[in-house]
Design brief:
Order of helices and strands: EEEHEHEHEH
Low-confidence stretches: 1-14
Strand order of the largest sheet: 1-2-3-4-5-6
Strand content: 25-35%
Distance between the termini: 53 Å
Mean pLDDT: 86
Helix content: 25-40%
Number of strands: 6
Structural class: alpha/beta
Length: 138
């Protein structure tokens, strides 16, 4: 019989992370250290079943770094209140350590974030290019 492979998630924008690892059944994530930031990219669902893995993935990889953090959620299909809670927790963590923190969202993420009026607190950006362009110079 044939060999089974895990399909790679194609990137939607130039510069997006393409090699994403499975964090849960419904969430994949990847990270990359760039000159200007730590970039995290996710696809799938950010909800009560994945918020803990999402938070741990980011907190484990940012330790010892001082670069700004960009979280790309432009390929997230669904976000619920648990996912929003995870974002708020991360925003507080990075604000407390005076690190710049930006979230990139798609229409679904933006609608959910705006519904609870967190767009300013999460430094919501319309796309990855805008987020990278708005980073404060080092």
């Amino acid at each position: 019989m044939g060999v089974s492979t895990v399909p790679r998630v194609p990137h939607l924008e130039d510069g997006a992370i393409t090699d994403l690892q499975r964090l849960t059944v419904s969430l994949r994530g990847g990270s990359e250290r760039r000159d200007e930031c730590l970039l995290f990219s996710f696809t799938g669902q950010l909800d009560a079943y994945s918020d803990k893995q999402f938070t741990e993935f980011i907190t484990d990889r940012h330790k010892g770094e001082t670069l700004p953090v960009v979280i790309d959620l432009s390929r997230i299909d669904f976000i619920d209140s648990s996912g929003l809670g995870a974002l708020v927790q991360l925003a507080k963590l990075f604000n407390d350590s005076a690190r710049q923190f930006l979230v990139v969202g798609n229409a679904r993420v933006v609608q959910t974030v705006k519904l609870v009026r967190l767009e300013a607190f999460l430094h919501l950006q319309p796309d990855l290019e805008s987020a990278l362009g708005s980073l404060a110079p080092a």
